[in-house]
Each structure stands twice: as structure tokens, then as C-alpha cells.
Amino acid sequence: MCDEFIYPGLVEDARLSRRHFGLLATALAGTLATGMAGENVVEQDVVVPTPDGQCDAALFEPKGKGRHTVILMWPDIMGLRPAFRDMGRRLAGQGYIVLVPNPFYRSARAPVIDASFDFNNPDQRSRLFALRKSMTDDGIDRDARAFLAFLDARPQADRKARAGVQGYCMGGALAFRTAAANPGRIGAVASFHGGNGLVTNDPDSPHLLIARTAATYLILQARNDDAQQPGVKDVLRKACADAGRPTVVEVYPADHGWCVPGGQTYDPAQAERAWSALLELYLGALT
């Protein structure tokens, strides 16, 4: 479960004050046509209808004409925030339509943390874990279908190309669920420091869903997660092999959270390496 993730220390981003976040969203929505979100990317704050309500999310689309493959990006347990907007914008700059949802929309609008979040503070940590535990598997599946339907409805979406899904921390498990809930649509799954929540003893363990998918997998684990449970990588490799799913499972020389700027474990060099692996995955699997 989410408390198995090793996410030490502070996570800081001055852009995370709620007032600043709200002003940023308003500015982006008001200047969509000017391209202030990026030279080649249009960014928009959107509300995605789901069977369970209205989900606030960030949408990133390449400028200009043409058709583009769609990507769903699940954030980590700290949710939709500026760091994930940066990553969504960057990925869209590679020619993808990217949606980054607020996975906790049933409980709170994004952002769900403030400018400084301390994982060593039990009160702050328990608040996030409560948000995660309020999410049900059925609800995640419904959300995933709604998010993909929203992406596929975009005028420039290439509905003939298979879609990709990627997740960070808890988002890795959500990416697995997305692929299982949409086996005919998802062609690539990427998990970054997904932790030991990818393999559990529960009947709904994410690794058991791999056989229900038709995707290529990129599973990059953190060294401290692997040190805690070294057998997880082997279970994941076997599950993919048994399902006949092409996969890369690798333990990176970096700690949980290394891909996301703002945290004490952020490792720029290894984050860039993971980013290159992601682009290689999508280039090869999403046709």
C-alpha cells in the first residue's frame, strides 16, 4: 500500500502556494491562444467528467496541425502540482497530447500539498495516505476510462495509434490498472519508482493485472525500494514473461522519487536517463 513507499524528507516548490497555483491556472486558461505555456505547447486547465464527478486536470497539446498520440500521466502520491505540469508540458513538446489528472478529485482539488511538505511529519504524511486509501480499484478503472475518452475526443487525437500511460510512485500501480481496464487502447505502460505496491499479497495486486493487458512495459524501480523487497523485480519480470508482454524491469541507482523535481531524492542525471527510456518506449510501442 502507499505507506510502503520510501519518500524521505522535504518536498518543496514555491509555486505550490494555493494562491499562486490558482493564479497560475487562471493565467494559463486566459492566455491559451498565446502559447504562454510553452513555445510549441498549449496548456489548459480542464475539468474531465467521470462517472463519479468532475476531475480537475491539466491538458497539454502540441501546437499546429496534425494528429498526435495520447498519453495519460498519473502523478505520485502528492498529486497534480507544478512539477507534473512541467513534465506534462515537456512530453507534449515531443508531439504527444498529455493529460495529468488530480487523482484525489473526489476529496479535494489540486494541489493537495503546500509549498513545503515533510514526509517525516506524521500528520502531513497520514493526510496523504488517507487520500490514497479513499481511492477504490473500481473508481480508478472508471476514471481511467473517462480520462482516455476525454483524450480521444480531442480534435487532434490520433485514435488509430495506441495510447500510453505512465505513473510515478503510487501512479505506477494506477498505470497498471489503466492498462488492464483498457486493454485494447493502451500500448505502453511506464512505472517510475512504483515501489513495492506493484507486487502485494492481495488478490488485486497490480502485477496480477499484467496478463489482462496488451502493452509493452517499462518498470524502473528505486534502489531503496529494491533493498526493502529485492524479490519484487523478479516477480514483475516473471509476470510479464508469463503474459508474453515485452518488458524492461530495472533498478536505478537512485532513491524513491528520483524522477520528480522538488524532492530531496530528485536525481537529475538519473531522471534524464529515465526520461530517455520513456521516449524510447513510446517510440517503439505506440504505433
TrEMBL record:
EC category: hydrolase
Superkingdom classification of source: Bacteria
Keywords recorded for this protein, A-Z: Hydrolase
SUPFAM superfamilies the record matches: alpha/beta-Hydrolases (SSF53474)
Record EC number: 3.1.-.-
UniProt cross-references to InterPro entries, sorted A to Z: AB_hydrolase_fold (IPR029058), Dienelactn_hydro (IPR002925), Dienelactone_hydrolase-like (IPR051049)
Pfam family, one: DLH
Ranges of residues in domain Dienelactone hydrolase: 56-281
Entry GO MF terms: hydrolase activity
Name of the protein this chain belongs to: Dienelactone hydrolase family protein
